[in-house]
Amino acid sequence: MKKETLKKIAAWLPAVAVMVIIFCFSAQGADESAQVSGGLLDWLEKVFHITLNQNFIRKTAHALEFCALGVAAEIGFFVSLGRIAPVATLIFSFLYSLSDEIHQIFVPGRACMAKDIFIDLCGAAVGTLFFILIAAIIGKIKELTGRHTKGDES
């Protein structure tokens, strides 16, 4: 297998891992999901003396999961597609969010909610922007220090 092909495969591994994690959380029934959220709420209150409601925790989890997917998918698309990666990442994240919500229709006590798709997409957009910012900073550092990797000379 060519080195370039292996590089592209490796670049997609984080996105696949995040997608598996999202799928596993979405496969939890309502009772199990409520226990996980409740445990986190108890921990936050005990350790940080913060009281939050379960809905806030659940929606924040949606955003954070898809923020991670935004970063991970951006890595894959950046290596595979280059400059059009952000658009591809957002389309991909939207489609995965939609499939995730449809999946939840078949999980006891769960439902498909349009607002969750919106929250997921906002999280993915933040992750995508975070990746772009970090890539720009790294590029600027390389430019200022005169360091280039093989292939940057184009």
How would you characterize this protein structure?
This protein has 154 residues and is mainly α. The protein has one domain (3-145). It has 5 helices and no strands. It has helices at 3-26, 30-48, 54-81, 85-105, 114-145. The mean pLDDT is 92.
Quick recap:
This protein is mainly alpha-helical and 154 residues long.
List the defining traits of the structure above.
5 helices, 0% strand, mainly alpha, single chain, 154 residues
Average pLDDT works out at 92
Task: Estimate the helix proportion, in percent.
Answer: over 70%
Count of discrete structural domains: 1
Number of strands: 0
Rg (C-alpha, Å): 18 Å
Proportion of strand residues:
under 5%
Please describe the topology of this protein:
Blueprint (H helix, E strand, L loop, with lengths): L2 H24 L3 H19 L5 H28 L3 H21 L8 H32 L9
